[in-house]
């Protein structure tokens, strides 16, 4: 994947890609508490996905990331 744009078998760009990340135990504990409260999602992976996407959007909005940074 030299261009960081995964493609499906038919050559179309994929909409979602699974990646793994390492989080501190404290962060995982906080995410599990949110899951139990069901205020930010009903599963740890869904909460993590929502928070990552929100963080990237906010960084772009605040000017920390530009469109050039993301392609």
Describe the protein.
The chain has 71 residues and is mainly α. The chain has a domain at 25-70. 44% of the residues lie in helices and 0% in strands. The protein has 2 helices and no strands. It is globular. The two termini are 13 Å apart. The model has no long low-confidence stretch (mean pLDDT 83).
Counting helices, strands and paired strands, the structural category is: mainly alpha
Name the helix and strand elements from N-terminus to C-terminus, one letter apiece. HH
Residues in helix, %: 40-55%
Average pLDDT:
83
Condensed summary:
With 71 residues, this protein is mainly α. It has two helices and no strands.
Overview features:
about 70 residues, mainly alpha
Write the layout of secondary structure elements.
Elements: H1 25-37, H2 44-61
